[in-house]
Structures are given as structure tokens and as C-alpha cells.
């Protein structure tokens, strides 16, 4: 549990989606080691070396009763499904609070997730849309993002201007959220109206045309209601990259009735739209495994070219998104710790782009020093309706205490997806393929030189939406229940079960060169979690847990990497099992949270190619790992947030591989058995620390380390390891005005932070600086 404190929040206030707006090997920690950590942490519970003269403001969750001035309330989750405090929840949970988000100057979800080790960001590809493509513990979690506990469907790049905190649940998440990966899920907690009046704003300027303005206004309406409005406008280029950049703006009003009564209603709306030229990255130095060109082999890393090199076409590339979401959240407190909640949400999103991928499928870079400008395109509209009803309460049976949550969820997702057609096409007209022995005008600029490509080449063509429209409709129904059973102050058992019915159907109209396609999945599955918790003292816990996940075919709802096809429609959901042993401690008068966990997950029915060439559930994946985390304050002036993750992911059985031809296939045992999971660094670590030197001045520094990451299951292409540093300094002019200077990538490190495509790696932003004025009035 890597955690940081955040304000008490009302959940289920808004939603995030997308739409168009045109624009031209580490040691494994053993059980004994965990016990040692617990022993070392326990004496710290009563230590207090803080400086009472410097009170660095840290938001706290609301508690009842009177607390000492130097005691910080424990970190809390917004989810009703966590039926115990996070300290006593037998699962790894990282909470990124408002203070860390603000100090690190994060302006997007991927920015904020950089502070959590064990998370990597994947790159877009032909079948994988541009957007938040998150991997948790080595598993793709692209569809496992939730807003206030409800699945956030549709490919998109999420903003943070309306977020109170970000909760990352590690390990199988299906018992909490339904269909999901084995890695975990991300819950975004929205801001909501509060019974207080305040006006906050920020104005930021910086290098690379950085401009950002946000506003946060809250007004009480009588004694029992309040209104809150969050707004944002942002534009910036990407430091160290040519052409790449864009703008976005958003607005999120919310009104709450019944703030002090037993019945509460939260009405909210979220709108965000963006327009940008997306990044193309750098192609890999393609290695040949056989044949006469082996002598020309590359080493599998991205090519060494100028950092600014952009292989896209400024006159062709664009990405426009739009989000429109409305939410009604109703709650009634019956008293006696019994609360009924119903949430209804409707949303529409659009992700529309033409984006150049520097493709090297034919070895153009090694053979000819050229790159094919592959046009990845998508026009996607996703519409979602969801409703969730839950009952939360506490009861005592004899001497045993129960804290429970049970509920029903239903949803309907509809995605319409198509692509763009170009006249003339995007292949090399000289070869009629994407082989590029030459580049320039004679190739219609579809082929570019590896070095010094011109993003302003006069590429002119006609663009139209393909008539091969794909429609995917997904319906789900689920029933779940959770209970934390407290036998006595030292022992408790956390159990949960969920049953899901999953129905999805794909219908693709015939295109100019393709036939109509239909496929469907009709399945149900049950997932579980259970954890035994031992509390050696009130401020600590040691736990052992077990959890499962299920990923059915068509898990992405028609807009992601895990698409429904005829080949996989009859397969069973992929099932993963995870065992975890961990410990959590709140020390230094609950100012500092510590955690450690070792875990092992297995997927025994992964979808792979069988000996007869069909797709079957016969593959196997295995992952072992270790996590260490810390969050909070060492003294009243010194804040820390960070952790370390070790992941050993192995593709144990990758099925069979066709070494023949389409006409005469010949399947052999996959040579990739035993290879490392793609997008999975063996070691990763992060640290953010800040110190308040006095009531006016504070400074902070951050570090992120990510080990080598493979881009393909062959393990022949990879992004090298890197370490990045950031810095911050802030000055409080008075109680209403403060200034914050942030320098990102302090050493101007050249690194690659996005893989998962075998063709290219995304380039991390270079050094940039921003100065923000934070205003209260």
C-alpha cells in the first residue's frame, strides 16, 4: 500500500471520456523478512521527531472525536467495497493524494501514475488505440479504469483537474469491478461539492508553450446543499520533440443536496475535449533472426537519432477527443450503520485520429535507412449507460463483528468503430507495399528517411471514413458481496464474491476489400477474494490473501487491445489466481504508512495458438513479485511518497507458432516459451520527497527508475532502463497567494517510456519548466 493522505471525498461525481474537435533479479522477501519489517515498524508507532514550528499543509480525512495536533488520520479509500480500513485490507492499494498530484505538477493520469512503481504505459498500435494504455504488474489494464467505482469505458487520455485522489488496486480486481486483467485496476475519485465556501485558481506558464489555467469554486446553498465548479484550459508542446503538442479544456459542475441529512443526492456533469498532434516515437533497430541480413542486425533498442525527430506528417496527423458524462448519485442513511446507494451514469466519448507509426515490419531501417509512415487511424464513438445499487452496513452476531457491502450492477456499452481511407493509399506506389528502398516525393512521402525526416512534407490526399463500420454492443449484469469478519481485535477475515453475466456481440459491415463479420460471446463467471488479517498491534497488520480474475473474449467492449473476433468468440474467460503475503503499518502517530508484500499470480488458460492453428485456452503465464511502499511524513515538515517493485514475469507456455505459409501451415512449439512478459520491468522504483524549511518556503525532488522493458514477446526489441529526476520549489507570498516552480526531467534524460508495439518506442519528454501561481480568494 503506497499511500498518501487526501481529503474526505464524496464519490461518484463525474466521468471521463473522449471526443473530436478538429485541428489542422532482486531478492524475494520471505515471510521472516516481513516479520522483521513488522518488528522494526512497531516501535516507530510512538516516535515523534517532528518540528511543531513548521506545519506543512497535508489534507486529512475526516474523523470523529478529538485528535492530537500531530496525529494524521489514516489514508482512506472512497470505495464502499473496501469493508475495512486500508490498513486492514488484505490487498496492495496505492493512493495518490491531492498533495502529491499538486507538488509533482501532474496534468494527466499518466503523469500522476509515474509516482507508482510497477505501472508502465503501453504504446498505441494498429489494433490498440492511442490513449491511456496502462500495464499493472505486467498485465494490460487498459479497460480497468473506474471513475468513482464505475467502469470508465472507451479509449481516452484522462485529465486530473477534477480528481481528488487516484487509487491503484494491485492484483486481480474482478471481485471488485467485474471483467478485468490480473494486474489490477485504477479508481479515479472525483471532486464533489462540500459544505464550505472557497475559491481556488491556478495560472501556469512555462517552456514549450506551456499554458494552464484551473479554477475550483465551491458555494453553499443554504444549510444543506452546495455547488462546486471545476474548470481547466491547457495547451503545451512536448519538450524535446518537434511538432508534437496540443490543447484541451474541461468543465465539471456538481451540486449536492442533503449534505447534513440522511438522504443525499449528488448531480454532476463532466465535459472535456482535446485537440493534438500525437507523438510517433522512434523506430526500433530491427534485429533479423535468420537469413542473409543477420550481419546487418540492429541491437533491438530504439535507433540513435536526434531526439526531436518526428516521423509523422503535420498535414495529415491529428487526434481529437471529447467527453460528455452525467451522473446521479443517491444515498440514504437508515441509521444503525446501514446505507443504501444508487448511482446512474450516462456517457458518450469519441476518439478520432490519424497517427503515423514509424513502422519497420520489412526491415527498412536496417536495409535502406528509411521508415514507412504507416497511418494508424480510428473513428470511435462509445456510449455507456450504467446503474449500480449497493447496501453497506455493520452488524454483530454473537461476539463476531461484520462490516459488509453487497450490490447489483448493470451496464450497457455500445461502440461504433471505423477507420479512414486515403486516396491515393499510404503504401509505397513504387513497390505496391510498405517496403521503402527509397523515400521522398516518388513514394508520395509515404516513405521517409530514418535521419532528418521532414514532418512538413507536402503530403496531399483525400480522406474519407471507411464504410466497414464495426458495431460492438456489450451488456453486463453482476451481483456481489463483501464482508470483513472481525473475530477479535487481533484476527479478521475479509471475503468477497462476485458473479458476472457478460454478453457482447460484434457486427462489422463489409468494406471495399473485406467481408462482413459477426461474432458474439455469451458467458458468465464467478470471481473471489479472501484474506486473513492478523493485527499484532492497532497500528499494524500482517495478511495472507487469495484472489481471482476473469478476462472474457471481447473484454475491451470494442475499443481496445482485447478485441472480439471470430477466432476467440467460443473461448472461455482467461482466469488468473493470485496469492499474496504482506504487512502494513501506520507509524509516527499515523503520519507515515509502510507496506511490504510478496505475491505470485498464474494464468493457466491463456489464449494462444494450439497445434492445429486454432485459438484455445491452453497457454500459461506466471508472475512473481515484491512490493515495498511508504507514504506520509517523517516529521511535520518532511513528506515522502514512493516505493519499489520487483516483477519476474514469464510466458511459461505460449502455445504454437506457424513456421510454414498460409497455404501450407506448419505449427511448432513456440520458441518464446520462458521469455519475459513484454512491458514488464524487472525493477522499478519511485520517490517523491519535499521539505518545508519554514512556513513560506518548501522544496521537493523526485526520482523514477524503470528497468529494461521488452516491446515484444520475442524479447528481441526493448527500451533500455532509465532514471529520471524532477524538482520543485514553492513560496507562500501570503495566505492567499503562493508560487510553485517545477522542473521536469531535471537532467534532460533521453529515455523511452512507452512500448508494447514491436515497431517503435515512445520518447519521454525532455527537460521542461513551469511556474504556477496558486490563488485563494
TrEMBL record:
Residues 87-184 form the TonB-dependent receptor plug domain. This is TonB-dependent siderophore receptor. Transmembrane segments: none annotated. It comes from Massilia litorea. Its main location: membrane. Residues 284-746 form the TonB-dependent receptor-like beta-barrel domain. It is found in: Cell outer membrane. InterPro entries: Beta-barrel_TonB, Beta-barrel_TonB_sf, Plug_dom, Plug_dom_sf, TonB-dep_rcpt-like, TonB_rcpt_CS, TonB_sidphr_rcpt. Belongs to the TonB-dependent receptor family. A motif (TonB C-terminal box) lies at residues 760-777. SUPFAM superfamilies: Porins. PROSITE patterns: TONB_DEPENDENT_REC_2, TONB_DEPENDENT_REC_3. Keywords: Cell outer membrane, Ion transport, Iron, Iron transport, Membrane, Receptor, Signal, TonB box, Transmembrane, Transmembrane beta strand, Transport. It is a multi-pass membrane protein. One of its GO terms (cellular component) is cell outer membrane. One of its GO terms (biological process) is siderophore transport. The keyword Transport applies. Residues 1-47 form the signal peptide. The lineage of its organism: Bacteria, Pseudomonadati, Pseudomonadota, Betaproteobacteria, Burkholderiales.
